[in-house]
Amino acid sequence: MPAVRPAANAGDMDGSLIPDASANPAVFLVELRAPHAGSQEIRGMHRALHLAVTRLAATGVEVRWLSALTIPEQSRSLYFIAAADRGDVVQARDTAGLLNAAIHRVLALPDTASPRPVSPVPPPDPKE
């Protein structure tokens, strides 16, 4: 997971943490669309990418498997991989034989759905 820092302008946000763009490693989304693949093939592609990431990491490449999701109704699989460089993710994808999978750098969004609690009454003045 990338390093995080407090939002620069906390008055505009709820104080959530946002990813530090300067932090390494970055997080990448590998998006695989396989409309004609069956569930066994999808699992095989998943294993192949996971194994490719694991093997690269074992050789000292700064790459790490984070998580994976599949959207069966859309024949899509989404893989999250942390890496110091996009080229390392490309190498893992190519090693897994998933040449048609798109790779995107991604950033987490701050949680703005939970507003800060606001006290309806200001605290008493200690001078009074």
Provide a descriptive summary of the structure in words.
The protein has 128 residues and is of the alpha+beta class. It has a domain at 34-108. It is built from two helices and six strands, in the order E-E-E-H-E-E-H-E. The chain has helices at residues 39-58, 86-95, and strands spanning 4-6, 17-19, 26-33, 63-71, 76-83, 102-106. The strands form two sheets. It has a four-stranded antiparallel sheet with strand order 4-5-3-6, with helices on one face. Strand 4 and strand 5 (76-83) form a beta hairpin. Helix 1 (39-58) packs across helix 2 (86-95). The longest helix is centred in the middle third of the chain and has 20 residues, at 39-58. The chain is elongated, with a radius of gyration of 20 Å. The N and C termini lie far apart (49 Å). Residues 1-21 have low confidence and may be disordered.
Largest sheet: 4 strands, antiparallel
> Helix and strand string, N-terminal first?
EEEHEEHE
**Helix-residue proportion:** 10-25%
Mean pLDDT: 79
Give the strand line-up of the largest sheet: 4-5-3-6
Structural class by secondary-structure content: alpha+beta
Distance between the termini: 49 Å
Our Rg estimate from Cα atoms comes to 20 Å
The shape is elongated
Strand content: 25-35%
Q: Runs with pLDDT <50, length 5+?
A: 1-21
Distinct helical segment count: 2
Question: How many runs of DSSP E, i.e. beta strands?
Answer: 6
